[in-house]
Design a protein that fits this description.
Elements lengths: L19 H9 L3 E5 L8 H11 L3 E5 L5 E2 L2 E2 L13 E4 L6 H11 L3 E4 L6 H9 L3 E3 L4 H10 L1
Parallel strand pairs: 1-2, 1-5, 5-6, 6-7
Antiparallel strand pairs: 3-4
Helix pairs in contact: 1-5, 3-4
């Protein structure tokens, strides 16, 4: 059995993250969040986060190639199918898959790209930041929303 607290399994440290003040301001100004990798399985973290975001007034755009509906909301197969503005692109992807969606993130021009807890890809983050988009890595949007706005 592997040790759940095995530090060798931790991702590298993010090269930079916005301050709590900047993240709180981002969340206060956010209305629409694209959730990439949103699962339809209630035992998954992405499902829990999606439900939290909806319950707290955010409009979400689920993105998953294999799910047609999530909680009655139409699901886009990829970021490029999203119409209209998105404030945050929230990524539930393995770190090695993040570069695959960077071009779509840059084209969508959200205020921020959010890499969930345990996800760090500093090279992809640099590319996204170079396009003028804020990047948050290795943080959970649900935890940060609750801690900074509702705690």
């Amino acid at each position: 059995m592997t040790d759940a607290c095995d530090l060798s399994r931790r991702p590298p440290a993010p090269d930079a993250n916005p301050t709590d003040t900047e993240i709180a301001a981002l969340l206060r100004g956010t209305k629409r969040i694209a959730v990439v990798g949103l699962s339809n399985k209630p035992n998954r973290a992405s499902y829990d986060v999606g439900r939290y975001l909806v319950a707290h007034g955010y409009q979400i755009v689920p993105v998953h190639p294999n799910i047609p509906l999530w909680e009655g909301i139409p699901v886009r197969k990829e970021l490029g199918e999203i119409e209209g503005a998105v404030d945050i692109v929230d990524l539930f992807l393995n770190a090695d898959r993040v570069p695959d969606v960077v071009p779509a993130i840059v084209a969508l021009k959200p205020k921020a790209a959010w890499l969930q807890l345990g996800v760090v890809n500093n090279e992809a983050a640099k590319t996204i930041r170079a396009a003028g988009i804020m990047v948050i890595q290795d943080r959970c949007i649900k935890i940060e929303d609750h801690r900074l706005l509702r705690g």
